[in-house]
Amino acid sequence: MGAPVVSGTVVAGRSTKDAIRDAALQLFSTKGFDHSSLREVADAVGITKASLYYHYASKVDLLVAIIEPMFDEVRTQVEGLDEIAHTPENVRAVIRERLRSTLANRKVGALCMRDTVAIVNALGNRYPDLIELHHRTCRWLAGPHADADTLLRATAAMQVLSTAMMSQEIVPDTDIDHIEATLLNAALGVLYPAR
Amino acid sequence: MGAPVVSGTVVAGRSTKDAIRDAALQLFSTKGFDHSSLREVADAVGITKASLYYHYASKVDLLVAIIEPMFDEVRTQVEGLDEIAHTPENVRAVIRERLRSTLANRKVGALCMRDTVAIVNALGNRYPDLIELHHRTCRWLAGPHADADTLLRATAAMQVLSTAMMSQEIVPDTDIDHIEATLLNAALGVLYPAR
DNA sequence: GTCTATATACCGATAGAC
DNA sequence: GTCTATCGGTATATAGAC
Q1: pTM for the whole thing?
Q2: Which of A96, A121, B116, B177 has the smallest CB count inside 10 Å?
Q3: In this protein, which residues make up the domain named HTH tetR-type (chains A, B) (predicted)?
Q4: Is the CB of residue B151 less than 8 Å from the CB of residue A171?
């Protein structure tokens, strides 16, 4: 909206590019990726669609800007698993680390969880190994030479972690460390059943 | 494609209407609801888009035909919860029943899970209490006068059950009764933590 | 960097012949 | 019940002035 600009940064502290990304995340989260138009995103920011194209080359580029930081974080974590021995303490540490980044990126995570098909379709072959990264995490959690039952429980444990993305809606007045502790224990309980 | 028809039923045993529903489920599951066109559905069946409209009044009507049976099943289960005492045996029975219908409807369930935003948007106000039904289930599982921690664990337990929808991909050679037993115990473990 | 105006394409849905 | 043809709407994306 013609705000004063110094080398690409709005004086207020947030660039137009960032404002577009934030508005798009909000819109994609509520209406879905396919059902959100770039005109709506531009309206939310207070610019026109044509101006938006100055900052992002395409709708998919905008989506990538939103989710790439989280994907990179997950990728780094998963690729590091190869060097971590599968001990009970390390399993606990790995789950805790994933839980922390899930909580930190919960808004983007919820978008990916609730609009998976549309996003996967839009990204096409840009992240061909994304699902494989998730499977690798499950396989690492299950441990070497795990049987089918253990692999199923490892997948269920990962599902428990995804509860973190909805935690603000479910228990809004609970502090984040407590949520982390509860879900960590729950996931470990699924992975190592008492009975 | 002009197959002989007796009172709405193709002689082969499956009506065109059913074929459209099945093709749509397949297409919606892979490409998402918004990104799937009725032209593609019609092409998969071998008819034109106009013929499809003879069987279903709108794209949303087609979606409803796919998901309504599962929704009705869930609704019946949740509305019956009011009359069930919250005892450990009943909690186990309720989880088992939900697990069974989740497994029975896993293809439709996976569609709803992976394309939530688009489907909720398309349905609009047709099922205004759908999310509330899920919350009621979580609250019943947590029990009367439950604290925030228990409610969070009840939600996580429901997430464990959703693993059933992916079970065929994760452990394809495991029989369904074993999957049911494993996930039932996992969900109970989350709800009643040992530590 | 932002604008107006537009090219191009596909969508859901309908009309009407057969 | 299925078809061809088309309407009205909206989407992404671009051209070019300022």
Answers
A1: 0.92
A2: B177
A3: 14-74
A4: yes
